[in-house]
Amino acid sequence: MYLFFEKGSFTMMLKLNEPKNEKEIVLLNGLSKKGKSYWENKYPCGSGGWIHYRIEKKENLADAAVFLSMRTKKDVLF
User: Fold this and answer.
1) Residue 64: which of 24, 18, 5, 14 has the closest Cα?
2) What 8-state DSSP symbol labels residue 8?
3) Which residues neighbour 36 within 8 Å (Cβ) at sequence distance 6 or greater?
4) Strand order across the beta sheet in which 9-17 lies
5) 63 touches 53 (CB < 8 A)
6) Which residues contact 14 (CB under 8 A, 6 or more apart)?
7) Could you say which of 4, 15, 73, 75 would form a disulfide bridge with 11 (CB–CB 3.0 to 4.6 Å)?
8) Quick check: 19 and 31 in contact, CB under 8 A?
């Protein structure tokens, strides 16, 4: 995972695989409209893809937690 800091925001870049179990599917279904758009339009790579998710406000942290949970296989809460 990579973080790119900007004035007033930051971008999280990480590679995610397609969901492999029910928990990951539930996580993806909990994404906001913006988060789902990023997931659906990820840059394809192998059995998943790269996501460049820009975090501009507090509400975006919930999507970041979902992506981090999928990547690390651990529960992440913000």
Assistant:
1) 14
2) T
3) 28
4) 2-6, 9-17, 48-55, 43-45
5) yes
6) 1, 2, 50, 51, 67, 68, 71
7) 4
8) no
